Amino acid sequence: MTTSRETGSTAGSGSAPRTLAEELRTRPDDALAGLLRARPDLLNPVPGDLTQLATRASTRASVVRALDRLDRFALQVAEALAVAPDPCSYDTLAALMTGDPGTEGADPRIAAALPRAVAVLREQALVWGGEERLRLVRTAYELLAPSPAHPSPTGLGPTVAEATAGMSPGRLQEIIAAAGLPATHDPVTAVAALTGLFGDRTRMAALLGGAPAEATAVLGKLVWGPPYGTVTAEPAPHLRWLMDRGLLLSTGPGNVALPREAALHLRAGRAHRAPEPVAPELAPVTEHSARLVDTTAAGQAFTALTTVEELLKEWESAGPLVLRAGGLSVRDLKRAATALDTTEPAAAFWAELAYAAGLLASDGDVDERYAPTPAYDDWLQLPAEQRWTRLAEAWLATTRTPGLAGEKDAKGRTLAALGPDLDRGPAPEVRRRVLALLAELPEGASVSADTLLARLQWERPPRAATDDLRSRLALWALAEADQLGLTSRGALSGHGRALLLDPPAAGGALAPLLPEPLDHVLLQADLTAVAPGPLRRPLAQTLSVLADIESKGGATVYRFTPGSVRRALDAGRTAADLRAFLTEHSRTPVPQPLAYLIDDVARRHGRLRVGAASSYLRCDDEAVLAEILADRRSAPLRLRRLAATVLAAQVAPDLLLEGLRAMGYAPAAESAEGDVVVTRADVHRTPPRTPPAPVPDGPPAPDTTLLGAAVRAIRAGDLASTTPRKQSPATTPTTGGLPRTTSADTLATVQAAVLTGEAVWIGYVNADGAASQRVIAPIRVEGGFVTAYDHTADEVRTYPLHRITGVAELADDVV
Predict the structure, then answer these.
(1) CB-based contacts of 301: which residues, under 8 Å, 6+ apart?
(2) pLDDT of residue 713
């Protein structure tokens, strides 16, 4: 092993480390940085020295997190160490992984992969010691070692020593006698003799050669786990045969276990039934043309843009209410799905995507509603490829998980889309890993979802098969990537590959594949207009007011109705404006039925005027007013004639407008000055909002600068805590505490160090009362302050003399 620079460790370079802290002192700086990079939770806060680092690396929470991040083979190696002798040699570990020499079906790749797995465990401080004395960190051993309450993944049971811990000496002598072993003088040697028998392949084979067939069948059921069983007060003869020879040892009333040593013999020495030394191969199942994948994915990317825009346009005038607990109600989600002509899970995805991109938020009003943010207007002005890139980047980074919407939480409450409980920390990592695995395939190639999941489960084995969150996140990521246009036909697109490496480049790769917006439609005689592709924004906005969308797809069909034409007239357009607009943007002549429809609605539009009295109705044609008064359907409006051309109503103007329109008329609202009121839906925006911050899965990965500073601080703190110091009569003896000297002795020792240039050890209490030990090289002493190079902080600092509790010289042999 490469040794680090000299740190004053109590373990010499030639002696084996006795603790994890001692081994960490022998590691070079880049190895310590690797440990902190692999386990960033150890950095919060930065440990004061290597002893603190080793202690923190052995805590249960940190070890559990480290084990969760191991690949399957590295975890299997750690599990093997948990059932191996402690300490364990490398050769013993290799035998546990590969089995006895010549074992049928042994995988030759295990021996090749084992050094890497041990190196990973050692790098993450889960294993320490030399090759002849490998030790698993105690906390990891407690988590992985077999026990009746927590069976080991290896399926092995207790050792002979563990299973016989409470057994009487007489019973032990009976067992070794039945097994053909000579009597011993004490239980310790009896256990050792039985353990030696089970570990001896030749003698064990001879013993089992005389076993009844039923006994062999019982061992076959227990050998790969679970190794525990139950017996009655009067066991069957074949069970009695096993119990008499210690092949089944009692672990409690009516309970027995197959000893670990016996199970290993039956397994031919293997700790695992099926070691997995290498990751499952990603074998492509289908291959398509890269051009086909890119173009179809680009079409879906454009659809994603129009879908998000359509959803936010639907909610910009009357967005859905925010539930009291936060989120979108089931009814509003169904309405959104209907408006988008999609499923409810897909509608939840689009809403969450807009929310993650900062385009949608709650407005914070008394009647709190969801509405587009001001950033939505800026987003609309961007080119299509930049709008898509922003959505894709937001999807990659967010911890929001739309797939959870509609499920139940731990308390039985339904999780709502846009609600507060949809964040899952591993989501961004899983999405990136799914895309990265697809990027490893040839262009245009795809793999099955099962193959991809098998690879992910090897890289991060799930804690429990019943709750494999990462697999669910991966399946959602595949579906969402397809909806976004990152993938098509199961293969990653060119702009999807670029997104992983350089997001701005992804937009450049997508731009040539997007359809060019059109500036025309095709008018037809059946009062419809066909848009053969995406329309330019001003044309699409005007047409959406003048006509209703009838169908979507490769071509969008718009239908003109009296209501849609009246909507355009209410928005301030005239019949001449509408005819001119259609003539300008249609590649076909304006059909006569459409021209008649516009003229007919315009002729009747505004003949009736509704204003506020409570409300009134006026018309230049007295016959029209008489017709309305005579119509029974006008009774709820409670109309009465004020003058020949004016009627008064007892309902509000908006209700009067609705009632008259329901009767087939086309009234227009007017202001107090008598002008026609142009009615448009009010566009509502929230105050400026920031996108939701991701909820990280543990501490963030440290950068190179932070790692370098942390390693220097840990080294300096370790130097201060482990450096030997001279004992002097002036120094008050302490047991690991701060040095204590008088003010005069402190001043004299520091002044002497300035003259000689030597470093000294001091105790220091800062202004907050925090005490620390430091190794400093004094430069000057003046005005009640000492200026010195602080080895702990790795910089020059000034310390008030009155805050130094004491000083001691370093031992002569310290460099």
Answers:
(1) 388, 484, 485, 486, 495, 510, 514
(2) 84
- Judge contact between 279 and 460, C-beta under 8 A: no
Six-digit token string for 698? 């543990």
Structure tokens at 665: 């008329």
Which of 102-111, 166-175, 471-480 has the least mean pLDDT? Answer: 102-111
213 token code pair: 């067939």
CB-CB neighbours of 514 under 10 Å: 20
Helices (H) and strands (E) in the chain, counts: 33, 25
**What is the CB neighbour count within 10 angstroms for residue 324?**
7
**Tokens in use for 263?**
């199970």
Distance, CA of 121 to CA of 57 (rounded, Å): 12
Determine the Cα–Cα distance for residues 390 and 404; give it in Å rounded to an integer.
23
Q: Which of 712, 768, 709, 763 shows the shortest CA–CA distance to 741? A: 763
The b/e string for 181-209 (b: 16+ C-beta within 10 A; e otherwise) is: beebeebeebbebbbebbeeeebbeebbe
Q: Return the SS3 of 773.
A: strand
Task: Tell me the pLDDT tens digit for each residue of 752-803.
Answer: 888 787 888 888 888 888 888 888 888 888 888 898 888 767 778 888 988 8
Q: Other CB atoms closer than 10 Å to residue 448's CB: what's the count?
A: 14
Residue type, 392: A
For the beta carbon of residue 130, count every other beta carbon within 10 angstroms.
Answer: 14
The pTM assigned to this predicted structure is 0.77
Strand 609-611 to strand 668-669: parallel, antiparallel, or no bridges (unpaired)? Answer: parallel
The answer to whether the beta carbons of residues 473 and 401 sit under 8 Å apart is yes
Q: Report the Cα–Cα distance between both ends of the chain, in Å, rounded.
A: 23
Q: Dihedral of CA 238/241/243/247: which sign?
A: negative
| Cα dihedral 232, 236, 237, 239 in deg (nearest 10) | -60
**Position 46 pLDDT exceeds 70:** yes
Q: What b-and-e string marks burial along 286-301, b requiring 16 or more CB atoms within 10 Å of the CB? A: eebebeebbebbbbbb
Distances in whole angstroms, Cα of residue 329 to Cα of each of 163, 174, 363, 435, 663: 58, 72, 16, 32, 35
574: left (phi over 0), alpha (psi -120 to 50) or beta: beta
- Tell me which DSSP letter residue 515 carries: P
C-alpha gyration radius of the chain:
40
Reduce the DSSP state of residue 630 to 3 states and report it.
helix
Residue 605 to residues 246, 600, 612, Cα–Cα distance (Å): 101, 9, 19
Q: Name the amino acid, one letter, at 320.
A: P
Collapse the DSSP code of 475 into the 3-class scheme (helix H, G, I; strand E, B; otherwise coil) and give the result: helix
For the residues 346-351, what does the mean pLDDT come to? 96
Question: Which has the closest alpha carbon to 180: 202, 159, 160, 203?
Answer: 203
Owner of token pair 């000893």: 259
Burial of 101 (0-12, 13-18, 19+ CB in 10 A): exposed
The torsion region of residue 91 among left (phi > 0), alpha (psi -120 to 50) and beta comes to: alpha
131-188: pLDDT as tens digits: 899 999 999 998 998 877 677 788 898 999 988 888 898 999 999 999 999 998 888 9
Q: What is the DSSP string of 716-730?
A: HHHHHHH--B---TT
Residue 3 pLDDT? 34
Determine the Cα–Cα distance for residues 274 and 289; give it in Å rounded to an integer: 38
